[in-house]
Design brief:
With 272 residues, the protein is mostly helical. It folds into two domains: 2-125, Homeodomain-like (Arc Repressor Mutant, subunit A, Orthogonal Bundle), CATH 1.10.10; 136-270, Tetracycline Repressor, domain 2 (Orthogonal Bundle). The radius of gyration is 23 Å and the shape is elongated. Strands 1-2 form a two-stranded antiparallel sheet. Mean pLDDT is 78; it is low at 1-55 and 60-74. The longest helix has 32 residues, at 2-33. The protein is built from eleven helices and two strands, in the order ααββααααααααα.
């Protein structure tokens, strides 16, 4: 507990220091813009920005302390942002990208929607692309947890397959924004090496999680895999991504027969 408190105190000092520096920089910008209006007004604007930055940094760290050292979301530069404010920021970015795309999802848009300062987003995430990574990572973690709970109750291979198919259909029907976010991140990864590395790590992590689910089900006698668990996991993700893309592209089309054919393919990999 002492180590956690010390860590929060150190992070608070760092945030306050960066917030003051950000406020000072903003004050300098205000002075330049207000050269014709007088130095007094510029000084007032800069002082206000510095005070706002320090106040918000303190509020964020208080929120993080209240939620404890666990459950934080890793962000740019190894910093972490915990608690309710983090959830608002990530959710605001999620909605913005789904509605207007990454290019138009500026920190101004996201900060207003989340009710936080633009400087706070810059401090914790650095760029809107890194914030998108965080939004997708958070969604994937939640969805993989749900899937693990669902398939953990499967008694047969048919149960396991039916639960996975149900999960896919519910995602596309109830939360198409998630699918949009994933494909948006993939598109960005083709043009940005840093995002490409983040995307590859996300693929590796989710593949490892599904591989573990498959291996556990095989040990328990629920499944009989006809290939290595990791290879099967990759096939399942590939099928799921393809189905999701086509189902979103043609929302009025009946995919029942297509899904049934896909289930037959999956059954050939997972059962006798």
């Amino acid at each position: 507990m002492t180590a956690a408190v010390d860590a929060i105190a150190v992070e608070t000092d760092a945030v306050e220091s960066d917030a003051v520096e950000a406020g000072a920089a903003e004050a300098g910008a205000a002075e330049a813009d207000a050269a014709g209006a007088g130095a007094a007004e510029a000084d007032a604007a800069g002082a206000g920005a510095a005070e706002a930055g320090v106040a918000e940094a303190g509020a964020v760290e208080s929120d993080a302390a209240a939620h404890g050292p666990s459950g934080h979301a890793p962000a740019a530069g190894g910093r972490s942002l915990s608690g309710e404010k983090a959830q608002r920021i990530v959710e605001a970015m999620r909605r913005s990208v789904a509605q207007r795309g990454t290019a138009a999802s500026t920190f101004d848009h996201v900060s207003r929607a989340a009710g936080v300062s633009r400087g706070l987003l810059h401090y914790y995430f650095g760029t809107k692309e890194q914030l998108l990574v965080e939004a997708v990572r958070r969604d994937c973690e939640l969805r993989m947890e749900v899937l693990e709970r669902q398939v953990g109750g499967a008694q047969t291979a048919d149960d396991f397959i039916a639960l996975m198919a149900q999960n896919l259909q519910e995602t596309v029907r109830e939360d198409p924004d998630f699918v949009t976010l994933v494909f948006e991140l993939f598109t960005l990864s083709r043009r940005n090496t840093d995002i490409a590395a983040e995307y590859v790590e996300l693929l590796r992590r989710t593949r490892k999680q599904l591989t573990g689910m498959l291996a556990t089900a095989q040990r328990e006698g629920v499944l009989r895999l006809h290939a290595e668990p990791e290879a099967v996991a990759e096939i399942l993700f590939s099928l799921g991504d393809g189905f999701a893309l086509r189902m979103l592209a043609e929302p009025d089309r009946d995919f029942t027969a297509t899904l049934e054919a896909g289930i037959l393919c999956v059954r050939a990999l997972l059962a006798d």
